[in-house]
């Protein structure tokens, strides 16, 4: 069974995958601003669309397609989806 995650009234959805390479989600989000909390270290890679990510005590940073943001464990961070976007997330 593939786990399905839904957040922010269905504006963010992801599918989970666990294999020999680790734990992953692949997801989509509609244009908007979202705040997420981490319980593990994550690497988020933008696969389509356009977004900015703001980590605590940092300024917003634009990420290009296929560019990855390393996100520490135990924080809240914001994603500003400037248009409908998709991503791949790897969890440690």
Question: Can you walk through the features of this model?
Answer:
0% of the residues lie in helices and 62% in strands. With 92 residues, the chain is an all-beta fold. The protein has a single domain (4-91), classed as Jelly Rolls.
Question: What topology emerges from the helices and strands here?
Answer:
Elements: E1 4-7, E2 12-19, E3 22-29, E4 32-37, E5 42-48, E6 51-54, E7 61-63, E8 68-71, E9 76-81, E10 85-91
Antiparallel strand pairs: 1-2, 2-3, 3-10, 4-9, 5-8, 5-10, 6-7, 6-9
Numbering strands along the chain, what is their spatial order in the largest sheet? 1-2-3-10-5-8
Low-confidence parts lasting 5 or more residues at pLDDT below 50?
A: none
* Oligomer type: single chain
Coarse shape: globular
Q: Which percent band covers the strand fraction? A: over 45%
Order of helices and strands: EEEEEEEEEE
Strand segment count: 10
Fourth-level CATH superfamily? Jelly Rolls
Structural class: mainly beta
Number of domains: 1
Indicate the mean pLDDT.
Answer: 97
Task: Give the terminus-to-terminus CA distance.
Answer: 21 Å
- The CATH first-level class comes to Mainly Beta
The main sheet comes to: 6 strands, antiparallel
GO molecular function: purine-nucleoside phosphorylase activity; pyrimidine-nucleoside phosphorylase activity
InterPro entries: Ppnp, RmlC-like_jellyroll, RmlC_Cupin_sf
Keywords: Glycosyltransferase, Transferase
Pfam families: Ppnp
């Amino acid at each position: 069974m593939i786990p399905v995650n839904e957040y922010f009234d269905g504006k963010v959805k992801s599918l989970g995958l666990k294999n020999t390479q680790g734990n992953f989600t692949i997801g989509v989000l509609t244009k908007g601003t979202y705040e997420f909390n981490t319980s593990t270290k994550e690497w988020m890679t933008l696969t389509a669309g356009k977004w900015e990510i703001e980590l605590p005590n940092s300024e917003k940073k634009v990420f290009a397609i296929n560019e990855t943001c390393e996100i520490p464990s135990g924080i809240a961070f914001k994603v500003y989806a400037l248009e409908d976007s998709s991503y791949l997330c790897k969890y440690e």
